[in-house]
Write a structure and sequence with these properties.
- Helices cover 33% and strands 30% of the residues of chain A.
- By secondary structure, chain A is α/β, with parallel strands linked by helices.
- In chain B, a hairpin with a 7-residue loop joins strand 16 and strand 17.
- Chain B is elongated, with a radius of gyration of 27 Å.
- The chains are: A alpha/beta (215), B alpha+beta (416).
């Protein structure tokens, strides 16, 4: 029987994911050798590299047994997968932000339950946030450079992820509210979690949080 | 892409036309499933595709249902599942009949789906419900029936499929004993399959309790491995709900063992199914190579109360399309394409059918090359022409020679 197939996200948490998997004894060295390949095999295991937001799709459909992705992606997509482990890495926060000169205006609009135009890559998260407060928002979904939207009048505010706040500062955006915080998670396909429980549980056990075993 | 794709050529998103040979496989599987249901004494019911929206209560199912309005402006749903309509049927129509009611169905269900999520808006569910008995033998009985169905279709446990079995009342009862305050949050997290959240919540509990709260939903292992039950036992305590739930599970396993099903059962104390729906044994069937459940079911003792009859119940639903997708390939059924426009061909066709040979009669004088091409397109293995003294029969395989066989010899050749 083949080993586990692991979905690894490109981008910000790629290195953290590799470090965690490596520390758990998985042969991740091959993933560093050739950055353009999409599918790697090593020591019986397989690794696929995909966009972070696609990792839950591969795992939910069973195209990968397990995967690593941010809690922000799971909150947005609500995939039907088992969430096994908080890796504690890739920490970032989902925030509401607006351009500095307009912060007070946006705050007033929200208080008065007026409709605010919000640009975001996370439309479900944004909608739930505003509905949860009993406030109204017109959500505009974008796929990149969210910070641009309020600067050119496409939106009043943004809902986006921030790790250090640097991009916000560079674009003179101010955080108005924290919506959620996110770290990298180990997720598993529902079938793989049961049918290959020994391997999946062993991986979950081996993944450590900041050097400290959890659970 | 042309902007004006004509809708009249398309099926609606999430639906499709099913063509042979796939449709044949689907309907053959359905026939086999219903045959096994009957072998266990389950009788089929057919409920309407349209139900009043009040019939379905669960928010998730209501949201996903297609809605329409009748002439009195009542909201109707296309049934998104069959268990609730069957519960309505039992409570209203079978009130005076002796229990348990053992009913089965095979019906399409409808759910609105997002484009691009690979989901179907219409799919077939074949299932059974046992209403009016809380006996663990009935839980085991339907699980054994599920095994019977799957093995009859050529699947083997545990190589091809496994039944993952949990007991929803165990963790619930355990939490009520050790952490009643956190129990709702923990059960909601488990229904979301979010074990990280379970860990987080357990962090606020006293350490001697936290370990169990974390570990119980992670108890997974083959039913043949006694250590899984032993570990569960160590958390169960005595005399409480958790202990009763564990005893119930042991009895179910006892029945499954004598039914010869234990090898294919995987225990999972973290399996809870839909939030607040299942009240006892709960199970999901996974096939190797498929990321989704092929079937799922369990005990739902609270559903019938809504319809004025507080009857315990258990049952499962098989997703037929998913089941067919994991079945081993089967050779097409034997078929002879008999070619000929005159009455002699009609007579030959009738006589062949009378001898048990399936015959597709092409009432046309088609040359052999065309007939073979046609036969291959309908997955027929043979082409025949009426001939003096019988039928000139040829296999559609490349380079096969035609032979003249007497009529009564055709069955022996074709039905091998």
């Amino acid at each position: 029987m083949r080993g586990l197939r692991v979905a690894v996200p490109k981008g910000a948490i790629f290195e953290d994911a590799l470090a965690a998997l490596g520390a758990a004894g998985m042969p991740v060295g091959v993933l560093r050798e050739d950055g353009r390949r999409l599918l790697y095999r090593a020591g019986g295991s397989e690794f696929i590299v995909s966009r972070a937001s696609d990792v839950p799709v591969f795992v939910e459909h069973g195209a990968a047994d397990v995967g690593i992705c941010g809690k922000d992606v799971l909150d947005e997509q609500r995939p039907n997968v088992v969430e096994l482990r908080d890796l504690g890495t890739g920490g970032c926060r989902m925030i509401l932000a607006a351009p500095r000169p307009r912060v007070e205006e946006v705050r007033r609009s929200i208080e008065h339950a007026e409709v605010v135009r919000v640009a975001t890559k996370f439309p479900n998260t944004a909608r739930r946030y505003f509905e949860g407060m009993g406030r109204q928002a017109e959500i505009i979904e974008l796929h990149g450079s969210i910070e641009l939207a309020p600067l050119v009048g496409l939106a009043d505010a943004i809902v986006d992820l921030t790790a250090t706040g640097t991009t916000l500062q560079e674009n003179d955006l101010v955080e108005m509210d924290g919506i959620a915080s996110s770290t990298a998670r180990l997720i598993a396909n529902r079938g793989s979690y049961r049918l290959r429980h020994r391997e999946v549980a062993a991986l979950a056990e081996a993944l450590e949080r900041n050097g400290e075993p959890v659970g | 892409m042309r902007e004006k794709t004509q809708r009249k050529f398309s099926t609606t998103p999430g639906t499709r036309d099913v063509l042979p040979p796939e449709s044949t496989r689907l309907l053959d599987a359905q026939a086999k499933v219903l045959e096994r249901f009957r072998m266990h004494g389950f009788r089929e019911v057919v409920t309407p595709a349209l139900e009043y929206s009040e019939v379905i209560e669960e928010p998730r199912l209501r949201d996903s249902a297609f809605k329409l309005f009748d002439r009195d402006n009542q909201m109707l749903l296309l049934r998104p599942e069959v268990t609730t309509p069957v519960a309505r049927l039992v409570a209203q129509r079978l009130r005076n009949a002796p229990t348990p009611h053992k009913l089965s169905y095979s019906l399409p269900v409808y759910r609105r789906v997002g484009v691009g999520r690979g989901q179907s808006a219409e799919f077939r569910q074949a299932g059974v419900e046992v209403v009016g008995s809380a006996n663990p033998g009935e839980d085991a009985g339907v699980i054994a029936l599920l095994f019977d169905v799957l093995t009859s279709l050529g699947l083997r446990a545990p190589e091809d499929f496994s039944v993952v079995l949990g007991q929803a009342a165990f963790y619930k009862g355990y939490l009520r004993q050790v952490a009643p305050g956190a129990s709702d949050d923990l059960l909601a997290a488990l229904a979301d399959k979010d074990l990280v959240r379970v860990d987080e919540i357990s962090g606020s509990l006293p350490p001697e309790v936290a370990a169990g709260v974390r570990q119980v939903p992670r108890l997974v292992g083959p039913a043949t491995d006694a250590s899984v039950l032993e570990r569960a036992e160590s958390y169960a305590g005595t005399g409480g709900e958790a202990a009763a739930a564990l005893e119930n599970l042991r009895r179910i396993l006892g029945h499954l063992e004598v039914a010869g099903c234990l090898d294919g059962v995987m225990l999972d104390f973290g399996l809870a199914g839909r939030h607040d729906y299942y009240t006892g044994a709960v199970y999901e069937v996974y096939a190797s190579g498929l990321g989704f459940t092929v079937a799922n079911g369990g005990r739902y003792d609270n559903l019938l109360r809504r319809f004025g009859q507080a009857l315990p119940a258990t049952g499962f639903a098989i997703s037929l399309e998913r089941l067919v997708s994991v079945l081993p390939e089967k050779a097409p059924a034997p078929l002879v394409v008999l070619v000929g426009a005159d009455t002699g061909a009609t007579r030959t066709a009738a006589e062949l059918r009378a001898s048990g040979v399936p015959v597709l009669h092409l009432a046309d004088d088609l040359p052999e090359s065309g007939a073979v091409r046609y036969a291959r397109s309908v997955e027929a293995g043979w082409v025949g022409y009426p001939a003096p003294g019988g039928v000139k029969l040829a296999s559609v395989e490349e380079g096969a020679e035609a032979r003249i066989l007497p009529l009564e010899g055709v069955a022996g050749e074709v039905l091998r």
